[in-house]
Amino acid sequence: MSSQRRGTDSTAKPTRRTMDKTHWLYIAVIAAVVLGAAIGLLAPEVGKALKPLGTMFIALIKMVIAPIIFCTLVIGVGSIAKAATVGKVGGLALLYFMTMSTVALGIGLLVGNIIHPGSGLHLKPYEAGSGAKENSTVKFLMDMIPSDIPVLPTLVLALMVGFALQSMGKAGEPVLNAVKEIQKVVFKLMMMIMWLAPVGAFGAIAAVVGATGWAAIGSMAILMGAFYLTCALFIVIILGSILRLVTGLNIFTLMRYLAREYLLIFATSSSESALPRLMAKMEHAGVSKPVVGITVPTGYSFNLDGTAIYLTMSALFISTAMGIPMNLGEQVGLLVFMIIASKGAAGVTGAGLATLAAGLAAHKPILLDGMGVIVGIDKFMSECRALTNFTGNAVATLLIGKWTNEIDMEQARAVLAGQRPFDETTMEEDGHGSTHDGGTPDSPSQDQRVPAGV
Fold first, then answer.
1. Which letter, b or e, does each residue of 387-413 get, where b requires 16 or more Cβ atoms within 10 Å of its Cβ?
2. Which of 54, 320, 375, 422 gives 118 a disulfide partner, CB atoms 3.0 to 4.6 angstroms apart?
3. pTM score of the predicted model
4. In the chain, how many H helices and how many E strands?
């Protein structure tokens, strides 16, 4: 058994090495932002002339919004129906996820309306830039990028197709599988576009800083600071209070228990990298294997609290920066749209940006021209999003376990108190002292089900 575990440990190392490409992209974006800001401050006119770089990058993102929304929602509707058929665990999990996503989106709107991030920037659409129309090269390159497809009709069509496939039962599975294959192609295209993020961020930041000077840097810093503070308060106050009321456990002891996973997420900017470890640690904390096997993978697609806060705060930042504030009705409409669309913002670098672009396009397409600034600072907020999403899923697993009486509370208290440490040498899901039913025969199928939920 120990040799088998060493084998699994050795096979895990190459998986971590595959994150190196993302690290290079992360470093490139940071360098591009710094260089763009420097050019904007030292040579404002040159910075303004670089604006088409950011505009073309946003146009590429707009190009894939509709395919991403269509594929993720069609598959998402199927995932909801499949999870709901699992029984009380799946139903409770989905209800909790929808509730918390709505709360997180609402908090993002509340904070955005209080601090008014982006005020004073006075961003303008690219078409309003001086001399942009006369540049034939820029026009030629822009014409090469396919125009975007309307988002709202795509969303409605995706929902209808998803429910239609569900009504077909097994007869609809081949079509659903085909959509999953198309989704892989679309996400691959999105990853290719994201490798151009340094170029887009460079042009967008240079143009904004060139036009507004230090005000742009200050506004971006305020947005990032407010976002980090909001996520921290959400974890401590909202998630911490619910965890204490339902289970009596302390959020800080839970975070200490997951400290190594936080370091892994911070290093990779993705909560997906810590998914296997979260499942293992939740079982070690006394939650039954069936609850962990359903709640964690489903939560990785449907319980994205950090992403939800990011979406609404960023949307308000852009609308305020462009001098086109959204009224209460538009904000509520944006919240409803994001509740649905954010279910597809998991597992792929840049999917959060695509979801944000979809929300803006559905309400005021002109706001898409202000997304270049968000592209520049998106990477600085990705770790916080991932950490918040991860913590939300850990809390959700403990809550669902308590509500379904599928958690050993004595084990949970002892583990979080540090009395029964997690054994890093046996982190596979088969060795954590969980005495609940379903601990052995069902584990392979649950492990196979994990990738579908990421």
1. bbbbbbbbbbbbbbbbbbebbbbebbb
2. 320
3. 0.72
4. 21, 0
